[in-house]
Amino acid sequence: MAVTERHGDYEGPGAPHDPADLVKWFSGTAGVLLAALDTDPSTSAWTIAPPPTAGFWQRRRCLETLIHRWDAQQALGIPGQLDPALADDGVAEVIDTMAPRQVRLGRRSAPSHAVRLCAGDTGSTWILGPGEPVATIRATAASLLLMLWGRLPAESPAIAWEGDRRTAQAALGGALVP
Question: Which CATH number is associated with domain 84-172?
Fold first, then answer.
């Protein structure tokens, strides 16, 4: 509805409990979603943050699916890698969209210190928070994304810290994503 009718208050019917009905329901809703997203990215749409275009939702659904696919694979014991370019965009989305939205909605406080995040595999760097960074976190884009989404602990050996780790972890504390 955000793309097709340009409003965000749509409440669809809940998923049925009967497995046979659930498969039909899932196929139908997936088809509706794919049809809505199969449009010019510059098409006007209702969004939760700028830009107010279908492209926002194309990015959002892709990155949401990336995280939840990883969740499902982990639950099933199936190792899975995250595409570095998608993970990189996912980190950018947390920094430019999700964390600021969480602050706007009162779900977390604005960070009081800045933290630099560096993805060694993609070469991207981001800063979350105001001022000069108190610490730098280095990892792959996938490890950074999983850490920001609470799927990988900050203590993981995949994450390298430089600087004031305790202050940086406090700045990253709270829900950065919904």
Answer: 3.30.1050.10
